[in-house]
Design brief:
mainly alpha, 71 residues
Length: 71
């Protein structure tokens, strides 16, 4: 990477972070207001777990590869 450039991993972290927030938020919304016809494994709340995982991974990537951070 050339000096002053932004790492592609920072943008991947942003993508993971945004998707994690959206999926986690949708999962919490489904817990608060359950759908009329829930899927078979609704009680596992997979979207909450996967959203939280993506959110955490996105935060890690954003912090580790943040622009201006010394390597």
């Amino acid at each position: 990477m050339h000096a002053g450039g932004i790492s592609i991993w920072f943008f991947i972290g942003l993508s993971l972070l945004v998707n994690g927030i959206l999926i986690f938020g949708a999962g919490v919304w489904e817990i608060v207001r359950p759908p009329a016809n829930p899927v078979v494994l609704f009680n596992l709340h997979a979207n909450v777990w996967w959203g939280a995982l993506l959110l955490i991974l996105g935060l890690i990537y954003c912090v580790k590869f943040a622009p201006g951070r010394k390597t």
